Amino acid sequence: MYRAPVEEIAFTLRHVAGLAGALESGRLGELTDDLVDAILTEAGRFATEEIAPLAEVGDRQGARLANGEVTMPDGWPALYRAWAEGGWNALTAPPEFGGQGLPHMLHVAALEMWNGGSMAFAIGPTLTIGAVEALAAHGSAELKAKYLPKMVSGEWMGSMNLTEPHAGSDLGALKTRAERRGDGTYRLFGQKIFITYGEHDFTGNIVHLVLARLPDAPAGTRGISLFLVPKFLVGEDGAPGRRNDVHCHSIEHKLGIHASPTCTMIYGDGRFGDEPGAVGWLVGEENRGLACMFTMMNNARLAVGMQGVAIAEAATQKALAYARERTQGRAPGRTGEGMSAIVEHPDVARMLLTMKALTQGARAIAYACAHAVDMAHTTEGEESRHWAERASLITPVAKSFTTDVGVEVASLGLQVHGGMGYIEETGAARLYRDARIAPIYEGTNGIQAIDLVTRKLPLSDGRQIGSLIAELRAVAAEAGTDPALGETGPRLEAAVADLEAATAWLAAALAEGRQAGALAGATPYQRLLGLVLTGCYLAKGALAEAGDGRRDERRALCRFFAENLLSEAAALRDRVVSGAASLDAARVVLG
Amino acid sequence: MYRAPVEEIAFTLRHVAGLAGALESGRLGELTDDLVDAILTEAGRFATEEIAPLAEVGDRQGARLANGEVTMPDGWPALYRAWAEGGWNALTAPPEFGGQGLPHMLHVAALEMWNGGSMAFAIGPTLTIGAVEALAAHGSAELKAKYLPKMVSGEWMGSMNLTEPHAGSDLGALKTRAERRGDGTYRLFGQKIFITYGEHDFTGNIVHLVLARLPDAPAGTRGISLFLVPKFLVGEDGAPGRRNDVHCHSIEHKLGIHASPTCTMIYGDGRFGDEPGAVGWLVGEENRGLACMFTMMNNARLAVGMQGVAIAEAATQKALAYARERTQGRAPGRTGEGMSAIVEHPDVARMLLTMKALTQGARAIAYACAHAVDMAHTTEGEESRHWAERASLITPVAKSFTTDVGVEVASLGLQVHGGMGYIEETGAARLYRDARIAPIYEGTNGIQAIDLVTRKLPLSDGRQIGSLIAELRAVAAEAGTDPALGETGPRLEAAVADLEAATAWLAAALAEGRQAGALAGATPYQRLLGLVLTGCYLAKGALAEAGDGRRDERRALCRFFAENLLSEAAALRDRVVSGAASLDAARVVLG
């Protein structure tokens, strides 16, 4: 059973991601070390004791639809209420609406743990928090006053309605229609698919944020507006009243996260109300809906990244426990009687160490990204701009590398279990199934790579990625001074050089208009950046004096990563700088 | 829907794996090119038209157990009968028992296609064919006369009973007990788990081959005997009579291959018959059971390898079809109206080309392995010994690289589908689930790597791997002469050098007693060999003049592989030669 890795998380936040410095600087207000520990401990306790025990029943029963209503698995509505009553939904929300306004670093740490307990559970609240952010940033005072307090308290949940059958990665193609009424309201008509937690029995109302197009809107992404469409219209008294003309038509039968209802939502077909049309209110300005969504998209991407970290952690814990217990054969050097625990076999140890290193690297990347978000919010001027850029730069990697790691580690974890891994009751298969959505939703990892290469590398004319590379090179140099880290220093320096070479190649390709070439290298580049960040963050952790008696372990894991896994960096650089021509030529194979 | 790739298979058999030469040499008896084409076409037709349409219902319904009896999915018993009546079970079986004695190359080609139609279906017959092999090689004349004709015709199926709860990879630990009776029969008592097709309603009898231990047997693997235990005892008239004391206690709820019943079998608990004990007959000699199993284990491993190839092919077909149809965004260079098919986006093209190249490489490795098996059977003396060694050397790679590729390609295929890939109805998720067992069963891929490094590399004092490397180097040199292959020649030469260096390092480690170091490098080495074989076989195909108008495509795919994917070889070599020390040191992390 999953146990929230509170100590490892606290260590990573403080000594790798930058929380210690941020606390010292006084930027995080009244937040103290003790409070950080208290929050992490309690979030971890909730994940371990409340969420994790309900993960299996959630997977088995799934969310069930009947007559347009979704019934959640046994025990889940109570779980949600306990979670909301714990104040967790309010962690980062604005204090004026009941939130605690805590740093994003704590939020993602808590997210990691809740997702570790059950990804299908944590994704729901995650979306509500995203809806709160969008509304807080762009909603009118009236909308905020009416909806935010109840969304922050968790009394109501939110949902994000973007995708349509022909508009997924390309939102410009969406067709849902919004008509103006004279009274400041709109009527929405259309169909949305893949709407996570679009319908459920957790809360008495659901606040849908919906992208739609006005009749006179320009084509493409510049003609998209954002609307708030509640499931139940809210009266003057603030209580849910009559049903709005929106309903859940069907839910998807998915590979994993079975308890997360993935809904097809129908707006305005006349099922409810006197005349067809779902009543909606504009959020932000007309035709500026995509900009409103972008506000929260970075955070949503990081939140999905936490799912990758969480699944990787859960899979590693499970596999390690099994490998310590299960005995088969005799490992080299074994002298005693009987069989060895399989953890003693070098090949199994390789799998487990790979899992450990990738999980920790993914975690550090995600937390470093959250740190940059917090720094951008708590600094000003040039400094704030730098940190906002840094967050922007790392976000695609914090979404993609982490979620790829989630799949990779879950697959290794299943393998460690041998035949038992393939049996659903063991639980390793659930992690493998759940993990697989994260590289897809909230922008596929391929879309992240395009974003990274075409929009993030050019930030400040390349100086942002340049400053990151300089920092990484400094870590590599420092790693070279610690003999306990073996070849880590030189290996990291070589990998940073690979990253720099690949970056330069992509910059030149973009500058010279070789768009296809740059895009061909985007995914290998993204992985390369993730690997180099992993190596440097493992080294940063290994170099830190935390006084917790685990430094030798961190050094050993860092060295393992540097001397075993980092060699992939050169291959990735090669793919970026030499791969595009043959990729282009080989399109003939694809007909 | 899956379409058996008959032409690609025929090309690979002839021009890459060596079928053309074997046919020319006259070694394959009366087999002609026309007959090969006819068999492949008809096996492909059966896979495409009969098996594939039932894959989805098989996955959805699964095998169902009630009262010890397994009911197969709707339409599946008729499918099996049609398959057996088509004579497919008899393809490679000995002619004296009704078989056609055809080369193994044709068998694995047919296996690929049947598994492409449905892996859950093809695994059943595969095991029967394995049981036929074991019985033909080691059974007494009486046993063979009684059972083989009906097993070869497919009237009865077989099953292989090896694993027990504490004896998986380590069969020496098995506890199932066999007691001698004075009449030449034995009585078996014990429990077997993970028994594929241990119970079903395809056939009127099931012939279980069971590993068990005699009371006076030595401990470990030298005390294991093999027994034939029919579900129904067979009378003098050859008809199934009374029920033997063996039954299916439960079936597993698995991640995938739902229609393949994975049974816990109970032997001798007294449920059937007058006194407890399942009646069995010895196959081969007492205490030599493992040797009997090894006879067929290589072929069974290759058969599982075909599952990897098959799933990879099916996933590639499905993803490519989707990518040609689905439109999103605008690919670089697009000038027309509207959105581009996603296949035009470089990142999607990279995924699909990677899938294509790995699938074709895995196929070629498996067929080359089958070719070696056929050569060993049809040559004599030193030549036969060479080919038997070659088959032995390649088998672990033909099982592991192929099945890892199956998982990797199925995962990429799911990703190409975006959100639709995560929906079960699309079918990409089924391939991802089905694929995941193949790296585990029939010896985990880690066990294959141990076998490769500790037992196969030392064959003929290293001269067998040496001769393979020399052949690969020659292909690399030839590739260097074709300008259409771009950098393929030098890239392959470098990769072959990496393989040679890793081989030498492992040989030295074994010679110097550094067993743990050699085992630490086993899995990366296995992947390295698979990658280099893939590159060389793609080149061999690209250099061949098949006159089918597809040479340019083969050249382009080969070049893509060499210039994009082969760069992993250096990283793998590095892991083998530099990774062991840090892996060993990092065991402290695993507690």
UniProtKB/TrEMBL annotation, chains A, B:
Pfam families: Acyl-CoA_dh_1, Acyl-CoA_dh_C, Acyl-CoA_dh_M, Acyl-CoA_dh_N. Residues 160-266 form the Acyl-CoA oxidase/dehydrogenase middle domain. Its EC number is 1.3.8.-. Its cofactor is FAD. One of its GO terms (molecular function) is oxidoreductase activity. Residues 469-583 form the Acetyl-CoA dehydrogenase-like C-terminal domain. The keyword Oxidoreductase applies. Keywords: FAD, Flavoprotein, Oxidoreductase. Residues 287-452 form the Acyl-CoA dehydrogenase/oxidase C-terminal domain. PANTHER family: ACYL-COA DEHYDROGENASE (PTHR42803), BROAD-SPECIFICITY LINEAR ACYL-COA DEHYDROGENASE FADE5 (PTHR42803:SF1). Belongs to the acyl-CoA dehydrogenase family. It comes from the Bacteria. The keyword Zinc does not apply. PROSITE patterns: ACYL_COA_DH_2. This is Acyl-CoA dehydrogenase. Residues 38-155 form the Acyl-CoA dehydrogenase/oxidase N-terminal domain.
